[in-house]
UniProtKB/TrEMBL annotation, chain A:
It comes from Micromonospora thermarum. It comes from the Bacteria. The keyword Oxidoreductase applies. Gene3D superfamilies: 1.20.1260.10. InterPro entries: Aromatic_CoA_ox/epox (IPR052703), Ferritin-like (IPR012347), Ferritin-like_SF (IPR009078), PaaA (IPR011881), PaaA_PaaC (IPR007814). Keywords: Oxidoreductase. This is 1,2-phenylacetyl-CoA epoxidase subunit A. One of its GO terms (molecular function) is phenylacetyl-CoA 1,2-epoxidase activity.
From TrEMBL, chain B:
GO terms for molecular function: phenylacetyl-CoA 1,2-epoxidase activity. This is 1,2-phenylacetyl-CoA epoxidase subunit B. Keywords: Oxidoreductase. Its EC number is 1.14.13.149. The lineage of its organism: Bacteria, Bacillati, Actinomycetota, Actinomycetes, Micromonosporales. NCBIfam families: PA_CoA_Oxy2 (TIGR02157). It comes from the Bacteria. It comes from Micromonospora thermarum.
UniProtKB/TrEMBL annotation, chain C:
Coiled coil: none annotated. It comes from Micromonospora thermarum. It comes from the Bacteria. Pfam families: PaaA_PaaC. InterPro entries: Aromatic_CoA_ox/epox, Ferritin-like, Ferritin-like_SF, PaaA_PaaC, PaaC. PANTHER family: 1,2-PHENYLACETYL-COA EPOXIDASE, SUBUNIT C, PHENYLACETIC ACID DEGRADATION PROTEIN PAA. This is Phenylacetate-CoA oxygenase subunit PaaC. Gene3D superfamilies: 1.20.1260.10.
């Protein structure tokens, strides 16, 4: 899961998979159209622009503007970091999950996020950067991850709220990325979105069960929605008026909708889902605007978003410390595996 | 995981009998045995009865269709600039 | 005397507590790839635990389901072996525990697959394949750590020394059980010896053979593990999740 709250989907549930499949079909169709006869020729920049214009995919061995490469590396890497750091808030509840079924689902979900992180690191590597470099950038704090993961999971209902709101926001962000102009990223996103289709549903189901449970459970669910609503809105990043990277990314078809468009889409989607849950979205100004055919809503606190991005959220230090410790404590294991592999190679050489 | 210790492997999966192995992605591992185990865990979490190949990325020779390669920056000769990525196997829904 | 209920409960508790410990590795593994592998193994153990505890509840006939058995018993009522409740320690300790557990579970589930009780036989048939994978994974890492660097060799040998005494409890004879654990010993010894030899490791010489798990007399660790696992479920009596 991934926000857009650093410089970089659609309807959930049934709609999500349809859109992902449509993106996949478009990808195949573009590939079949081919570009027979069209070769790079002398003017590589013109050829690159033609491929983008024709909604075809740029592939790793193609020429690409350096800024395009850098933008993609940053965006894919931050997306990968978000998946890896994003394991922590939910992983926090694996040991205390209230039923064995919930424990199994949560373990599988957190495991999926590790998998998504690895798909994305591998996609970034096709752009000529190594995973080691990317992990260093994360651990040294030079690259960011989605700021949403700097909030704590205080109760079990937070696991549900993350699934419904955070995964929901991530999906709204990610589905358009399935049509991104860079082939490896688009293909990775198709795979990620397909796998994530169950994440949001499990979160929604947790909240639904709590909201229809005991009064204490319902209160727990409402409290979680109260705490996660605005941070989830902030996942779409600063308002368009303040967003610095959008225009170029739109032209390159890395990004296809603006932050505010996606945020609006998310709000419109959530209102009816909240009604079914029987929970209240903590925004007294939330109401249908007939003229705009969309909901009016209160913007999240963007100053808070900036503070969290800067490192002053409730859990920034804890999340980074956890990741650094796991990496440092695993060093001797990785060295042992490398040493063993080297010994085996030497044995093979001697034998040969 | 350190890249110098842990080379890149390309992973090919046979999703079902009757289909050929298809490139699904890549991963890092210090040796072939671990690469195979990691590939099973990473790329076939939702499937049964598959066959997996892992190939050191450095053992793959890629064609260079045009003169474009001459314009590549130095990163172009790194092994991880492989041609394809994440082919979603046909007919595998809800992967 | 061990009836089918006690026997099934033992197996279910082994798998459940092993899953709980393995789950603690999530977000902490030495490599991201290993995070995924350990989660897979935890999920397998948890899956087996759910089947076994559900069946144990049915055999008991007192209306307890998997969650009642997992969340509403105290440590003195758990029947798992001590081996699985030991803290994870470093990665070497976890791999030593997994090697010994899976080298025991493979022949156990294999024998179970052929037993007269159809439900247990079906569980055994499913779980033995998973255990074979766990054994493969543990063996692979024990070889790498044992025959890797000086540090990893030292840690892996220390882990084997620390955990080995807890293996004896697994094979306490019980001729009345659907599978007598004593009959699994030869298979276990052969597997473990081969892996350790290849890993340039040795078995410790010790006469200490801690036991008691099968009678509900555990290490001090189990109560803490259960306190964490059960806290939320117990805080909301009768709630659905």
């Amino acid at each position: 899961m991934y926000g857009n709250d650093f410089p970089a989907g659609d309807a959930p549930g049934g709609g999500l998979l349809d859109e992902v499949e449509a993106a996949e079909a478009a990808l195949r169709e573009a590939a079949e159209r081919g570009r027979r006869g069209a070769t790079a020729g002398e003017d590589l920049a013109a050829y690159f622009a033609e491929v983008i214009d024709a909604d075809q995919k740029i592939e790793p061995r193609d020429w690409m503007p350096e800024a395009y490469r850098k933008t993609l590396i940053r965006q894919i890497a931050q997306h990968a970091h978000s998946e890896i750091i994003g394991m922590q808030p939910e992983g926090n509840w694996i040991s205390r999950a209230p039923s064995l079924k919930r424990k199994a689902i949560l373990l599988a979900k957190v495991q999926d996020e590790a998998g998504h992180g690895l798909y994305l690191y591998a996609a970034a590597e096709t752009l000529g950067v190594s995973r080691d470099e990317l992990v260093d950038l994360l651990l040294s704090g030079r690259q960011k991850y989605s700021s949403i993961f700097n909030y704590p999971t205080l109760t079990w209902a937070d696991v549900g709220a993350i699934g419904w709101l955070v995964d929901g926001a991530a999906i709204v962000n990610q589905v358009p990325l399935c049509r991104c102009s860079y082939g490896p990223y688009a293909r990775a996103m198709i795979r990620v979105c397909k796998e994530e289709s169950f994440h949001q549903r499990q979160g929604y189901e947790i909240l639904h069960t709590l909201a229809h449970g005991t009064p204490a459970q319902k209160a727990m669910a409402q409290d979680a929605v109260d705490r996660w609503w605005y941070p989830s809105l902030a996942m779409f990043g600063p308002p368009d008026s303040d967003s610095t990277h959008s225009a170029q990314s739109m032209a390159w078809k890395i990004k296809r909708f603006s932050n505010d468009e996606l945020r609006q889409r998310f709000v419109d989607m959530c209102v009816q889902q909240a009604e079914v849950l029987g929970l209240t979205i903590p925004d007294p100004a939330l109401r249908w605007n007939d003229e705009r055919q969309a909901y009016d809503y209160t913007q999240p606190d963007y100053d808070e978003l900036m503070r969290v991005i800067k490192g002053e959220g409730p859990c920034n230090r804890q999340r980074m410390e956890h990741r650094r410790r796991a990496h440092a404590e695993g060093a001797w294991v990785r060295e042992a595996a490398a040493a063993y592999a080297a010994k085996q190679r030497n044995k093979e050489k001697v034998a040969a | 995981m350190s890249t110098e210790h842990t080379p890149l492997w390309e992973v090919f999966v046979r999703a079902r009998r009757g289909l050929s192995h298809t490139h699904v992605g890549s991963l890092h591992a210090p040796d072939a045995e671990l690469a195979l185990r990691n590939a099973r865990d990473l790329y076939t979490r939702r499937q049964e009865g598959v066959s997996i190949w892992v190939v050191p990325a450095s053992a793959i020779t890629a064609s260079s269709p045009d003169e474009k390669d001459a314009f590549f920056d130095p990163a172009a000769d790194k092994v991880y600039r492989h041609p394809t990525f994440y082919e979603v196997p046909d007919g595998v829904a809800h992967l | 005397m061990t009836g089918p209920f006690d026997f099934t409960l033992r197996l279910g508790d082994d798998a459940l507590i092993a899953a709980q410990r393995l789950g603690e590795w999530s977000t902490r593994a030495p490599e991201m790839e290993e995070d995924i592998a350990l989660a897979n193994i935890a999920l397998d153990q948890l899956g087996a635990a759910r089947l076994l505890l559900t069946y144990a509840g049915e055999l008991e006939g007192a209306g307890r389901d998997e969650d009642a058995l997992a969340y509403l018993r105290d440590d003195r009522e758990f029947r798992n072996c001590l081996l699985v409740e030991l803290p994870n320690g470093d990665f070497a300790v976890t791999m030593a525990k997994l090697l010994f557990l899976s080298a025991y579970q493979v022949p156990l589930y294999t024998a179970l697959a052929g037993c007269a009780d159809e439900r247990l036989a079906a569980i055994g048939a499913k779980a033995r394949k998973e255990s074979a994978y766990h054994l493969d994974h543990a063996s692979l890492w024990v070889r790498r750590l044992g025959d890797g660097t000086e540090e990893s060799h030292r840690r892996m040998q220390a882990a084997v020394d620390e955990v080995w005494p807890y293996t004896h409890e697994l094979f306490t004879p019980d001729p009345a059980a659907p599978v007598d654990p004593a009959t699994l010993r030869a298979d276990f010894d052969a597997t473990v010896t081969a892996v350790l030899d290849e890993a340039t490791l040795t078995l410790p010489q010790t006469s200490w053979t801690p036991a008691g798990g099968r009678d509900g007399v555990h290490t001090e660790h189990l109560s803490y593990l259960l306190a964490e696992m059960q806290v939320l479920h117990r805080a909301h009596p009768g709630a659905r999740w």
